[in-house]
Amino acid sequence: MLDDESRYRILKQLDLSPGISQRELAKDLGISLGKVNYCINALIEKGLVKVNNFQNNPNKRGYIYLLTPSGIEAKAIITLSFLKSKMAEYEGLKNEIARLQQEVETLEIIKN
């Protein structure tokens, strides 16, 4: 299944580098080539990405991945969702750090 984080990261990277290979994309994102292939195919099926061969590529194996208008809209929606998720995660970590700092201070007071 294509999760929002994978969808966001792949759409973002394809938007920035339409001629990137799936192998390079997998390396850049730190995920398997199989997962990249699966995700791109899912995005193509959903109509968010279209793929074209390089016209002058001698080996005909190079592709350009272009976000469709629906893909651009989906990327914007997913980006907002991803940002909200990361902000909530950040707030949770900030609160946990504050609690841990308070715990350490309490232990130092008891120790002295």
Output the structural class.
Answer: mainly alpha
Domain module tally: 1
**What ranges have pLDDT less than 50 throughout 5 or more consecutive residues?**
none
**Beta strands, count:** 2
Label this structure with key terms.
112 residues; Arc Repressor Mutant, subunit A; mainly alpha; 4 helices; elongated; two-stranded antiparallel ribbon
What's the arrangement of secondary structure elements?
Layout: H1 4-16, H2 22-29, H3 33-45, E1 49-53, E2 63-67, H4 69-111
Antiparallel strand pairs: 1-2
Helix pairs in contact: 1-4, 2-3
Kindly describe this structure.
The protein has a two-stranded antiparallel sheet with strand order 1-2. The protein is mostly helical and 112 residues long. Helices cover 69% and strands 9% of the residues. Helix 1 (4-16) crosses helix 4 (69-111) and helix 2 (22-29) crosses helix 3 (33-45). It starts with a helix and ends with a helix.
